[in-house]
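Problem: given the chain below (204 residues), write out its structure.
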Amino acid sequence: MSPEPLMAGRAHLAALSGPLGALDAEVEHIDSWGRHLAGVLLGGGRLLAVGNGGSAAQAQHLTSELVGRYLGERPPLSALALHAETSSLTSIVNDYGADLGFARQVRAHGRPGDVLVALTTSGRSANVVQAVDAANEGGLTTWSLTGTAPNPVAARCQDGLAVDAPATATVQEVHQVAIHLLCASLEVEVSAFLSESAVAGQGT
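Solution.
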């Protein structure tokens, strides 16, 4: 693997501008994820998120927006960032090996129709690959946020967003915007559902 370009200041921003601009073409795609996820979570399903390092932080950012809130007031929605289950994760890694750290949790917590979001800038992290395989076997919907495709995680997921950029920082920065777009789309859908339910309740 070739070394990443070393960038700072304006060079960093210049490297971000192209991939971030390309995200405009994915807005409807991400909106469709938000609508789908809203339906799953409002129906009692769950989102599971996996990632390593900076991608783990972004996985936890996503789940916090769902269990807490992104902008508007709404009921909490079920979401777990599996790296944050530290006692489970470390015991699994100790007993079964690092590659199964997420997969065993997916098998424990995931149910058919739930959603797994797999975040990995390389698309090759073995524990994320195993998690996606476990999710597919369990009947979950699998989405990936990766760097440049093709890569193993993107290939295994049912849908995905691949950021074509050579720098890990750039990929993660675009992933963060995509996460907020997903949350915004979901909250629009949830708000509409709650409003319709309230109106229907007034009519009974």
